[in-house]
Sequence to fold (401 residues):
Amino acid sequence: MSAASNLRSEDQFLCSICLDVFTDPVTTSCGHNFCKHCITTHWDINVPCQCPMCKKVFKRRPKLHINTFISEMVAQFKHEAQQKTSSSSSEQQVSKPGEVPCDVCTGTKLKALKSCLVCLTSYCETHLEPHLTVSGLKRHQLIDPVENLEDRMCTKHDKPLELFCQTDQTCVCMLCSVRVRPPSYERTVVRAVAQLEETLSEEMKKLFEAELKRVQQYAEDVTLDPDTAHPKLILSDDGKQVHHSDVRKNLPDNPERFSQCVIVLGKQSFSSGRFYFEVQVKGKTDWDLGVARESINRKGGITLSPQDGYWTICLRNGNEYKALAGPSVRLSLKSQPEKVGVFVDYEEGLVSFYDVAAAALIYSFTGCSFTEKLYPYLGPCPNYGGKNSAPLIICPVNQTA
Fold:
């Protein structure tokens, strides 16, 4: 019996719900033990009834009976612990003047070994024992014994005053430190973030420059088809420029011609592989640009969207850029492009637009399904009393260095 008592520890007699020594221990049918009050309260709150340890679900709420064997063991353990406390107390040092006394001791105050910042209490060796063995108390923060623990806690955040603020010349807790960090630290972070953004920007520019150089290898000599041009559009003799005029020309209404929208298509068509062309948009407040499939509607009003056979981007009101993706997508550009590159990979189902001068990607249509011929698409938009009279110009492609 003596050997058995030496092997007993407090962990053997702890309820897994309250994490304290059993009071009126009961055993469930699955073999786990709890305080009667703890398991009863647990089942009052949680439905259906199940064991907190093994999660076994009981169809009916079990009737609970005190486990007399464990109850006797707990009583004996408490008695032995009390005897041990009495014995050890006589061996421990009595608190002397200037030393921190144990707050729990009654009668003669023993010298405190530790102070708990959670309990705001100082403990001698005996009364400190639960903080070293009970799992719920092990998480408490212990420090060397100090008096007036309330003065060591932040009144605003209820946290220990673990740090010293040189700016305010006072002790602060961890939460007070987001609020009183030195200005130099903030400047350092801002400077580091700015440097990182600059580095990323430079690397992205290099990647897009390489990408633009690659797609420019597929440049095609594109000219405009006068048979498709709206009657108010003026084309240059070489078929490279187009602008809007207020005068409507008397032209035959052939099936290829756009009758209502001021649009013109390229002569060249593409039904496989990759192709690329560049268009100068400098000086314009409004324009449309992209590619269109052969079977698009050319009479009356049209809707620019991939569902209707158009893969285009546009500028409106001088600074509103959109990808007409049905619904449209607002584009945020760092600078206004003066020359736009259009790249198509027919088999990949890709249409990409580039700001040539900035070597930056403007927008990409991906996952497109092309089943017929594609034509370059240019829409100079109305001239709006001369405000948008600049032409769209198909430019020769000069590959970037």
User: Anything to note?
Assistant: Helices lie at 2-7, 36-45, 68-91, 125-133, 135-138, 183-215.
